[in-house]
């Protein structure tokens, strides 16, 4: 079977070496030495000042909203994984969906201002497929209306925009280190801050809001991660350049094999060093997409409708907001298998199956 993705696994002996060290110390969690080492190396690799290694890519969004005291309405994208909008609901706020740009699939920054009301306090935008949002326009609108900006950078590890880490933009940025990501710690995530004054608060928020046995400051949450997860990150981090290079090679193979007279894909910004996180393809109709899905499934090839459905259409959303571009794209986009070790013959076979089933 060829799945849409496959977790990269480092040298087994290297990981076991870390596990033996953990066993010898008997220190398993609670901001242990490997967690601290990983945070330091991630800050150096990403060239950011403040980074907090946490349990997953969802909890970091919740902590970000709590740290910035977000209330009321939050402008967000309908084209993302449900974690983005679910977090807004979990923090007792209301998602206000703004449609996406038809070329980048990111939130359309030109439509944000019209959605702002007196109840709006923040913008939560996703760098979809690791492709940067229009960060300059979003910053301009946010400053004008005194809004906080959080970027969901779940797909954006290692991406630089105009020479800076994409995580450097906004008030807070987050990332997922789930096993399916370009860089992973099995489960995990990071919160990246541009505000030194938030440093102590963010440390406390991920650790129940207290330190020591008697010092309690506020109601935090358990966002910590373990030494075993940090060990996986320490094994994987040195391999990230090779991982990205391998993914780019597969990306280029698809580019060469697929029929672009009928297919299309999101436009990638020219101002970035990209991480090749996903390979999304847009079909002429949902019918064609489903035909291709069935043909691939018959060969044990499993792509993913990433993202589907458009989040504004979920029945439990409190506001009924039309987002026609997102609704259209979500019905026609399919992410193809992309992972280190996917052989050239399989990429060619996948492409031939797709090209052979593009008729309505």
TrEMBL record:
GO biological process, one term: polysaccharide biosynthetic process
UniProt keyword terms in alphabetical order: Pyridoxal phosphate
Record InterPro entries: DegT/StrS_aminotransferase, PyrdxlP-dep_Trfase, PyrdxlP-dep_Trfase_major
Active site per UniProt: 181
Stretches assigned to coiled coil: none
GO molecular function terms listed in the Swiss-Prot or TrEMBL record: pyridoxal phosphate binding; transaminase activity
Modified positions (N6-(pyridoxal phosphate)lysine) in chain numbering: 181
Transmembrane region(s): none
Membership in a protein family: Belongs to the DegT/DnrJ/EryC1 family.
Name under which the protein is recorded: dTDP-4-amino-4,6-dideoxygalactose transaminase
Organism annotation: Dyadobacter koreensis
